[in-house]
Amino acid sequence: MDLHQHKVVLRSIRQILKHQKEKELLKDEKFNVFSILKMETRENATHSAFLAALLDPSGTHFKGSVFLELFLKCINNNTIDVATAKVKTEHHIGFRDITDKTGGRIDIYIWDKKGNCLSIENKINAGDQLAQIERYCNHNKLKNEVYYLTLKGDEPTEGSKGELKSGIHFFNISYSSIIVKWLTLCSKEAADSPILRETIKQYIILIKKLTHTMDDKEEDELFDIILQNYEASLYLAANVKKAIAEFNNKIRQSIYDSLTNHLSEKYSISFGNGTEATYSQIWIRIKGYQGDKLLFGIQNFSVNVDPFFGKGIIIGVFTMNGKYLPEYEMFGKKDSNYWSAVKRFTEYDNYEIDLQNPELLNKLYNKNDFYNGFVNHIVKETIDYLAIYTPNVISFLNKV
Q: Does any domain span residue 231?
């Protein structure tokens, strides 16, 4: 392919993005209460709570069942009796039982007096839990419809859905299409309630930001450029993940180098899977205890979202075979069969530590000072974490 043609396509796309941002400024769309309060990616505290508040016929929007009726039409559901419907978040359906595949907490739960219910699992950043969709589908089995809500309508992991099939046993829905469509209808119904209307509009703006969705005019222009330069666009799309994987690996290498420089006297640092794998790590072993019984890990440098922990980078105590985790309470909560004492790195310069965030990656690529500060931030928090948990790991390993 002609490299010049690729550059032409990219310049044209950048121009569309520039126009989109200029429109956002003119319409005051940069001032967004959800973004200002750092509530953008909180599944339950922000998204589930807001959606449930609109869906609730007895909610403080005082629009009765109108919003719920619109939602049910958007997802083609006619099982719920809206006259008796109730809505809640974090609905407990029993303790989690992985063997029988029951129990858990459903993010948004809608039910009526006839015993019908609708269960929504809401995913923004979090990964899937083991047998999560299976467990929800087994709840009230003959009168429950389960929906898996993600930004783009993604499929649940095999570990979550098992042998269940989307479109048959449960349904995938997306923020980018279904939720935006529904909210647009809701904002029209709220035309006579300015605070409610504008709050819904701000939430729509947030969703478009999270899903990288443009206004119709800009989207049409983008599609036109892609179709006019279809072969070049295919090459660009095919190499996006490869380019990001290479840059993520550079970040991982920089963190590795700095950790080795600071910690090589007491710890052995090594790489895990590459950045194109599902999970990509840096492993940290205490010298003198260098097997795989218990070690520290930093994950996920991958171009893919972590199926279990979701977006972002975590540090924790890890065992390669999962054998030892149930035995040590000194590390606090067991986070999975392999991880315990998991901690997410704190924000750097108002950015969550999320290598899926294009704004963060762009700044890391283009600003050396920002890049170096980001690496130092990860390294410092890693050193602080190791200072807390190393004594406990040594104590445990001395016993096994």
A: no
Query: What is the DSSP pairing of strand 339-344 with strand 144-150?
Result: unpaired
259 and 203 housed in the same domain:
no
Number of domain units in the chain = 2
Which two structure tokens, joined as six digits, stand for 202?
């701000």
User: How would residue 374 be classed by pLDDT, with cut points 50, 70 and 90?
Assistant: very high
pLDDT in tens, 45-56: 688 999 999 999
> Which structure tokens are listed for 22?
């200029």
Q: What is the pTM of this model?
A: 0.68
Is 332 a residue whose pLDDT tops 70? no
Cβ partners under 8 Å of residue 233, min gap 6: 9, 225, 226
Token readout for 20 is 């989109």
Q: Which domain holds residue 372?
A: 244-397
Phi and psi for 122 in degrees, rounded to 5?
Answer: -105, 120
To the nearest 10 degrees (0 to 180), the angle between helices 230-263 and 358-366 is 70
CA–CA–CA angle 210, 215, 216 (5° rounding): 130
